[in-house]
Design brief:
This protein is of the alpha/beta class. The protein has 2 domains: 9-20 and 96-223, 3-Layer(aba) Sandwich (Rossmann fold); 23-93, Putative phosphatase, domain 2 (DNA polymerase, domain 1, Orthogonal Bundle). The protein is 45% helix and 12% strand. The protein has a 6-stranded parallel sheet, sandwiched between helices. Strand 2 (115-120), helix 7 (124-134) and strand 3 form a beta-alpha-beta unit. It is globular. The model has no long low-confidence stretch (mean pLDDT 96).
Length: 228
């Protein structure tokens, strides 16, 4: 693993990268039963598909609405009809657990003077709730939502938001995502991209050359020359 050079800001995807998107369903396992994992899988897949399809259709709705629509699809697919469960799952999506290493990693970056930000499909209210509940609000310089321009990743305009918001050139931004398609989209835009491959997935066959690949975010500081 070779160090990335001239990094002035670290920009993170939120869902699946900092926050565990399976956490809501897991916390309702007592109510959902053995289908908890399947529900989380369908919910996430449809959530992503709807962002891509709505972008292509030029029919933007914010991520909170899409999260609800995709949950409805998942519940219907599993033959589940429980308004109280649906409401609880949506509530929990605002309070997703971060992965264990996230807080310490962000603190290490901030202590070194590195700029930090989230760049996410999430709506502003969703992201604000998530970062405050996770206790990482003070560790981020900015939380940037696609809602500003009304189109979802991997549209190049989304990645430009980080360049403009942080006033840092694309080549000096280290972008981190656990979503392979997002990582390639950001690399194609011009960021130095590190893919957080938590689950040993294969690389996507998409444009954009990734700078590196790590399994957890606690490997990031050393990769960009921070700490021992």
């Amino acid at each position: 693993m070779s160090k990335l050079e001239n990094i002035q800001a670290c920009v993170f995807d939120a869902y699946g990268t900092l926050f565990d998107v399976n956490a809501a369903a897991e916390r309702c396992r007592d109510s959902i039963g053995e289908n908890a994992g399947k529900l989380a899988e369908i919910w996430r897949l449809k959530q992503l598909q709807y962002t891509w399809l709505r972008s292509l259709m030029d029919e933007y709705e914010d991520f909170w609405a899409i999260t609800g629509q995709s949950l409805d699809f998942a519940l219907n697919s599993l033959g589940m009809s429980d308004p109280k469960l649906r409401a609880r799952l949506m509530e929990l999506y605002l309070e997703l657990d971060t992965y264990p290493e996230v807080s310490n990693m962000l603190k290490t970056l901030k202590d070194s003077g590195m700029k930090t930000a989230i760049l996410s499909n999430g709506s502003p209210s969703m992201l604000l709730s998530a970062v405050k509940n996770a206790g990482i609000y003070q560790l981020l310089d900015q939380t940037i939502s696609v809602d500003t321009i009304g189109v979802y990743k991997p549209h190049p305009g989304v990645y430009q938001l980080a360049v403009d918001g942080l006033d840092v050139a694309a080549e000096n931004i280290c972008f981190l995502s656990s979503n392979g398609w997002d990582a390639h989209g950001a690399a194609h835009f011009g960021f130095q991209v590190v893919w957080i491959n938590r689950f040993g997935q294969k690389r996507e066959n998409l444009p954009g050359v990734l700078a590196d690949e790590i399994s957890t975010l606690d490997q990031l500081p050393a990769l960009i020359g921070i700490g021992g």
